[in-house]
Automatic annotation (TrEMBL), chain A:
One of its GO terms (molecular function) is peptidoglycan glycosyltransferase activity. This is Putative peptidoglycan D,D-transpeptidase PenA. It comes from mine drainage metagenome. Residues 558-578 are annotated as: Disordered. GO terms for biological process: cell wall organization; division septum assembly; peptidoglycan biosynthetic process; proteolysis; regulation of cell shape. PANTHER family: PEPTIDOGLYCAN D,D-TRANSPEPTIDASE, PEPTIDOGLYCAN D,D-TRANSPEPTIDASE FTSI.
TrEMBL record, chain B:
InterPro entries: Cell_div_FtsL. It holds the Pfam family FtsL. Essential cell division protein. May link together the upstream cell division proteins, which are predominantly cytoplasmic, with the downstream cell division proteins, which are predominantly periplasmic. This is Cell division protein FtsL. The keyword Cell division applies. The keyword NADP does not apply. Belongs to the FtsL family. It is a single-pass type II membrane protein. It comes from the Bacteria. One of its GO terms (cellular component) is plasma membrane. Its main location: membrane.
Length: 578, 95
């Protein structure tokens, strides 16, 4: 009760409060504010960027802007290589949780063996690719299995609709969509697309509602329009495969050029491969023989020897050349003809493919003149198609030529060329002596050419080349019903380890129609194994079949004055020459 | 507060609502645009796929095999071919 009496005196209560208590409260409040202030400074001043970034991450995203690789097309717009979006499926084995049923479902969707999938998933840690380049819809079904630890990676798949026929020309890309061979490699810079990126803001539903910034603009790959005609390419591939099969040859190649523009209309090699399924390929299949391999051209060189002599003015087409019964001795070397004759006119040297005749004509020429023309038509130099591994062939400097070397070079021994070089060199005859650059790309305007022969010489040699396919020539089997054709056979021993062996390269290079030439066709058959191995027997029929079909395909009217007898008729007999 | 102030206040309110409305509309349209762009990419992909399909189906070797083996067609022999030369029309002549 005493206490209650004292309480009403408020003023006394204040006095009795001890000062430290109010200081404590003040201090606590102040330090509270101080902590808040420091925290605010920490968040807004020092840590602001990080937090802002975190915040933006909730709603803003960097999205890639895809850019696809350009399409490769033939001269008529047919697609030869196209990229489509595809995804790779990969697993991170550290966070993988999969049961038996899921594994079987996964293997089924990936079209793989479940045992193989189990083996690949079993490792300790790390990332393993389960399938590359899967179409989008199939990949979506894999994700629908909702297996933790299975992820997708977006990319592109390159498809080659014309498969093996175009393989050597078009080439292929690697898993990263980068060109590895052929046109894919040569035109990599033009074809490749560069993906862009942009930052956007998304709403709760995942829709993009605003573009914040364009980080990088995409660059779509540009299309490449080739000079090749897919239909001619098919005909060439078909005829080449047939010829290789029937002659039991090791390999072969065909090049078809537009004789007026220098465009490559077809280029095929055998053996070939399917670019859509490249497992276990060897160099044999991958090699683009027509461009990267060289061989001794043999008698297909003779027209250039004769052309040199005509240009120098040493001979005329009807000049008679003594061929000494088909044998010529130079030092202690002997040059032989298959056909024994005492003399030939220059034209007959080509018609019968006389080695002795060509050698005698060459020995009368200054070496520099021969070398000049051979160099002018492109021998010993890369054809500059821009293709990987282009061969330039071998043409030794004329200063070191010995007479025997000059004589044998007259009929194509002691030098080497690629088939594409040979085809290009032959364009000078149908083209009135003008040589144009080769092109793998469709040309819109006629590329400027360079005169290497006079018009007169070109026409004279053309007339000689037309006699080659006559009944008396070395290649009556090269004739094409309804059309005038001209060309030259070649049969060369192969050089193995520096020595000539009894293996051959049979070739035929020609053009048609003679009255208004459109195409040059070069056929090369490597190591025909049967009893028939001469260019006139193995390569000429391929030229005939292919040229006939191309004439029809290109709607070229026949120019032969009368229906010719079909190759292989009884009129075609007698010795064959190189 | 004068009458003028009230009017201005109302005007500001209306404009503010208009801004909100237009921003909403912009976003909605933008979403539509994005969806159309996605569709464009999808159609592009489909176009490429169809081109691959077309290219594969039109491959010469396939058509040739079809013509030879299933349709029993053959290339004409030279004897079966006839060349028709059409002379140019003379003036006033009709064919």
């Amino acid at each position: 009760m005493k206490m209650r009496k004292g309480i009403p005196k408020v003023g006394k209560l204040e006095i009795r409060l001890e000062r430290w208590r109010s200081f404590l409260i003040q201090g606590l409040l102040l330090s509270g504010f101080l902590v808040l202030g420091v925290r605010a400074f920490w968040l807004q001043g020092i840590h602001a960027n990080f937090l802002q970034q975190k915040g933006e991450e909730r709603y803003s995203r960097v999205l890639p802007i895809p850019a696809s690789r350009g399409i490769i097309r033939d001269r008529n717009g047919q697609a030869l290589a196209i990229s489509i979006p595809a995804v790779s499926v990969w697993a991170n084995r550290e966070d993988l949780e999969i049961d038996g049923a899921q594994r079987i479902a996964l293997a089924h969707l990936l079209n793989e063996n479940p045992v193989e999938i189990a083996r690949r998933l079993k490792g300790e840690d790390g990332v393993v690719y389960l399938k590359r380049q899967l179409p989008l819809d199939e990949a979506q079904r894999v994700m629908d299995l909702k297996i933790p630890g299975i992820y997708l990676q977006h990319g592109f798949h390159r498809a080659y609709p014309k498969s093996s026929e175009m393989a050597h020309l078009v080439g292929f890309t690697d898993a990263d969509d980068k060109g590895q061979e052929g046109v894919e490699l040569t035109y990599q810079a033009q074809l490749q697309g560069l993906a862009g990126a942009r930052r956007v803001i998304r709403d709760r539903a995942g829709h993009v509602i605003e573009d914040v910034e364009n980080i990088r603009s995409p660059r779509q790959g540009q299309d490449v329009l080739l000079s090749v005609d897919a239909r001619i390419q098919h005909l060439a591939a078909r005829e080449l495969h047939r010829a290789i099969e029937s002659s039991h040859a090791k390999a072969g190649a065909i090049v078809v050029l537009d004789s007026r523009t220098g465009e490559v209309l077809a280029l095929v090699n055998s053996p070939d491969y399917d670019p859509n399924q490249r497992g276990g390929l060897s160099g044999t299949e991958l090699r683009n023989r027509a461009i990267t391999d060289t061989y001794e051209p043999g008698s297909t060189i003779k027209p250039f020897t004769i052309a040199t002599a005509l240009e120098v003015g040493k001979i005329r087409p009807d000049t008679v050349i003594s061929t000494h019964g088909g044998v010529l001795a130079i030092g202690n070397h002997l040059i032989h003809d298959d056909h024994v004759a005492e003399s030939y006119t220059v034209s007959e040297v080509i018609e019968h493919s006389s080695n002795v005749g060509a050698a005698r004509i060459a020995l009368d020429l200054p070496p520099v003149k021969m070398w000049d023309l051979f160099t002018d038509v492109g021998f010993g130099q890369k054809p500059r198609l821009g293709f990987p591994g282009e061969a330039g062939g071998r043409l030794r400097p004329y200063q070191n030529w010995k007479p025997i070397e000059q004589a044998t070079m007259a009929f194509g021994n002691g030098m080497s060329v690629s088939l594409v070089q040979m085809a290009r060199a032959y364009t000078v005859f149908p083209n009135d002596g003008i040589l144009r650059p080769l092109s793998l790309i469709k040309v819109s305007a006629l590329p400027p050419g360079r005169p290497v022969l006079s018009v007169r010489t070109a026409r004279e040699v053309t007339a000689m080349l037309e006699t080659v396919v006559s009944a008396e020539g070395t290649a009556p089997e090269a004739r094409v019903a309804g059309y005038r054709v001209a060309g030259k056979t070649g049969t060369a021993h192969k050089v193995v380890g520096g020595r000539y062996v009894n293996k051959y390269v049979a070739s035929f290079i020609g053009f048609a129609p003679v009255s208004a030439p459109r195409i040059v066709v070069a056929v090369m058959i490597d190591e025909p194994a049967g009893s028939r191995y001469y260019g006139g027997q193995v390569a000429a029929p391929v030229f005939s079949a292919l040229t006939g079909e191309i004439m029809q395909l290109l709607d070229i009217p026949p120019d032969a004055p009368e229906p010719p007898t079909i190759a292989g008729s009884p009129a075609v007999t007698g010795g064959h020459h190189t | 507060m004068t009458r003028r102030d009230v009017l201005l206040f109302l005007l500001v309110m209306v404009l503010a609502l208009g801004v909100i409305q237009s921003q909403q509309e912009t976003r909605r349209r933008y979403i539509d645009l994005q969806q159309e762009k996605d569709r464009q990419v999808q159609l592009q992909t489909e176009d490429d796929q169809l081109q691959i399909e077309e290219g594969t189906l039109s491959a010469s070797h396939r058509i040739e095999a079809h013509a030879l083996h299933e349709l029993g067609m053959q290339l004409p022999t030279p004897a079966q071919k006839h060349l028709l030369v059409v002379a140019p029309l003379a003036r006033g002549e009709t064919r």
